Every structure is written in C-alpha cells, then in structure tokens.
C-alpha cells in the first residue's frame, strides 16, 4: 500500500495544481469574452480518458500526466493549430483582444499558483504556528560528518552567517549552505569565513548526504530500557556520560561512536550523577546497542500567530521558498557540482511522497510545488507562459506584434527545449533506478 499511497498523493497534488493553474487562464479569458475551446487536465495526445462539451468548451482528462492546458481560439500554442490563424480575426479570439488583456490571461496561471502557496502557508502558520530550532541557540555547536568536513565545516563550529546573512532557523541551514557562496562560523573562539566549494556540494548531492549537518548534544541519558545491558550495568535516567575507558565522551556523537567501536568488548564508564562521579562497567553486545536514549535538548521553539499576523508571515514564507528555488538554478548550471544529476522527474518525485498519508506533508509539498510551477512557467521559454508574456511585453513596448511565423517558430523552439529538458529529467529518474539494481 505504501507505493500506491505515494502515487495517489502525487497524482492528487499535481491534479489540484494543474486544474487551479489552468483555471487562472480560463477565468480571465472568459471574463474578456475569449472563446475557450478546451480545458484539459493532463494531455490528450491522440485520445482522452474523458471528455464532455459544455457550451463552447470541451472539458476533459488526458492520459499523459505531464500537466494540462487551456486552448483558446485565435492563439498559437502547443497544439500548433495554425489553420484557424489563416482566417480573419474574430472578436471572440485571443489575438483580437488588447495586449493588456492577453497579458492578464497569460499571467493568470502563475498568479493562482503564487496565491495558492501564500494561502496554504498562511493557514499552516495559523493552525500550527512556526516551529524551528533557532540557529543561534546551539550551545555546543554543530555536528558534521565527513561530507560536512568536505565543505569546510567542523564539529563544534557555530554558524554565524551564510553570504553575510544570519540564519534564523537551523533547519534551513543545510539548503542555505548548498545555495550559498561563503560561510562564516565561530571556531575555537575565532571568526572564520570560507567559500562553499563546488566539490563539497557535489559530494552532498551525489551521496544524498543531506543530513551532513546536525547539532551537537551532551551525552545526557533520558531513559534506560529495562533489563538492557545499560540497566544491568547501573546506568539510570539523568546520568551524564563523562568518559569511556578514560577517553572524554561528553557529547552524544562521541559516546555512540565509542560504543559502536567497542562491540564485544568490556568498557569502563564514568558518569556524572547528581554532581558526583560514578564508575560503571559493561560489555557492549555485538549489535552495538546498550539500551539508552538521549535526553534531547529542548531547542525547538514555536512562534504563534494570529490570523492577521499569519498573512504577512505566509507571504514571507512564499517569497523565501521562491528565492531558494531561483538560487537552485545557480548550482544546477555549475558543471562542477553535477547538480543536474539530482534533478527529479515524476518518478523521483513520487519516491519523495510518504508511504503513509500525511496531511502536513501534503499541504507543505503542495505549497512548495505551487511556487515551483509559478517560477518555471514564468521562464521566458516559448511554449511556457513566460514565453507568451515575453512576446506580449515586446508588443506592448514596441507597439507592434511579432509575426505569426515568429510565434510559430518560437513555439517549435520552446517545444524542443522543453522536450530536451524532459528527456534529461526522465533519464535521471531511470538511471537512478538502474543504479539500485547494479
């Protein structure tokens, strides 16, 4: 059922976003009295799964789940139906309307996507508040693995800023670092600034090492499993691990590393219990687990918002997500990072869906993906909304419309670009699946 849930979650999110995006074109087109010939969820290449004509418009569902479209009379679009364009313009056609009306129609889809994300983020903030770990509240600094060290970070560093901007949330630090140019940290009482290396970004992306950055915690025991090795050795809740075999082990990562490297061996523990040192002994089992749980520092804070306060907070979150998506293009087009290999298509996105239904994930992903659709559709590539907007702005500035031949060629070029990108994206998905089996 897990894979089925993942697929259904993805299809539902995409369906909602596509319908609302196309509705953003459809409503202003109807308002300006443009004849809408088709309104389709997914593409109906050769045939459709469902269709019904109501008035002048055919509503339907295609079989190819790569988006959707609204076909307007008198417009050169992805259908490349130029037969109608050879006739005299009619009052109900797209091409007969003033440029400003056509511009509003073409911007309608991305406008809906942006406002949808804003509304979702606003409602999530009103309902759940904004929970995060403050970046400046890490008493013992960060914890990094070898991948983090490849970027230039060290365990114990305190991140002060990325590209000169202080991060509010530690949970944003991973992405901020990958998208940034330089990091400033406090290390051993000194302020150190260093660039983010392309090789380090490549290592994170190629190894899926997105947990390379965590925060360091003391080895304070929260609870002990009854009848476990730790319980029999005398470890109790509240103990603070001081050392293992006389080697300092005050931090949780040091403690767990020492335990895993001592499988089948006898070790001597020193713990701080009620401000006195207790010496204990135990034999670490072969599985490297002794039966203790960490007492996590209570670092998470939640900012509560009223409905009115949540509106600008939701807007800021939408802009924040959009900004980071734009920055991602910077590393995608850096050959040394090989970030293009990590771009996910439909198959890869389905794998990101949770195997069990999760409403929080559903709404957060929908908001994020809605912003993504708005951004991608505004790219000035013919065949996308941004391509049509580009030609319309040229017409409004120059006072003359591009020729129909130019628009037709633009659509062909845009189609080739989009198909090329789709081939790369699907190729990545397929290659990643192949690598799992060989």
Automatic annotation (TrEMBL):
Annotated PDZ domain residues: 182-275
Compartments reported by the entry: Membrane
Keywords carried by this UniProt record: Hydrolase, Membrane, Metal-binding, Metalloprotease, Protease, Transmembrane, Transmembrane helix, Zinc
Documented EC number(s): 3.4.24.-
Mode of membrane association: Multi-pass membrane protein
Cofactor: Zn(2+)
GO CC aspect terms: membrane
Superkingdom in the source lineage: Bacteria
GO BP, one annotated term: proteolysis
GO molecular function: metal ion binding; metalloendopeptidase activity
CDD domains xrefs: cpPDZ_EcRseP-like (cd23081), S2P-M50_PDZ_RseP-like (cd06163)
Transmembrane feature ranges: 7-27, 99-121, 361-384, 412-434
Protein family according to the UniProt entry: Belongs to the peptidase M50B family.
Record's protein name: Zinc metalloprotease
Source organism (scientific name): Cellulophaga baltica 18
